[in-house]
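Per your request, structure below.
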């Protein structure tokens, strides 16, 4: 309520980055707390080719990765079944995960991100991994308002919520020398619309 009341005043808040970040947090929480989130997402879900969407991701992030000195490798299986998702929502999750990886790799020599996608049973799995230092407090990883986050501390929380609206799941794995986020989304079966 305080945010919305202050928002009514043009100055001095409209150009303040902290105020804008607060707005992002407030609006995200309102969206996530809405019982209409799942219903709204059902209306815009479509059959998406993961390979095509990952090519779009590659085109978007390659320049910033190259500029940061991060090598990106892509291992996307051919002929993946389509998944029923909101295309822009899934792309936003991919962008968030790769941005987090790029940030984690800032002080890493031979920095590398690996994006893999493959079919597993009746699901499509997308794994975004990096060879950065990993995450020290993984038990709180998907909780909102994480200290030390680059902005609102909601990125992974919101990403997991988005994936769950598609009937999928977002996991974190941290084998030695690697930090990975794994998205698993059910594949469409014939008859799905």
């Amino acid at each position: 309520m305080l945010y919305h009341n202050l928002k009514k005043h043009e100055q001095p808040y409209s150009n303040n980055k902290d105020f804008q970040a607060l707005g992002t947090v407030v609006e995200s929480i309102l969206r996530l707390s809405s019982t209409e989130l799942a219903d709204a997402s059902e209306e815009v879900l479509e059959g998406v080719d993961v390979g095509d969407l990952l090519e779009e991701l590659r085109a978007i992030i390659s320049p910033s990765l190259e500029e940061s000195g991060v090598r990106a490798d892509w291992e996307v299986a051919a002929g993946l079944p389509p998944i029923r998702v909101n295309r822009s929502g899934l792309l936003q999750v991919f962008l968030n995960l790769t941005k987090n990886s790029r940030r984690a790799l800032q002080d890493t020599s031979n920095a590398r991100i690996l994006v893999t996608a493959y079919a597993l049973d009746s699901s499509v799995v997308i794994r975004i991994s990096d060879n950065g230092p990993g995450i020290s407090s993984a038990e709180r990883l998907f909780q909102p308002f994480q200290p030390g986050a680059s902005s609102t501390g909601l990125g992974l929380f919101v990403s997991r919520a988005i994936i769950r609206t598609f009937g999928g799941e977002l996991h974190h794995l941290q084998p030695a020398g690697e930090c990975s986020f794994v998205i698993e989304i059910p594949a469409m079966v014939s008859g799905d619309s």
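The chain has six helices and seven strands.

Regards,
D.
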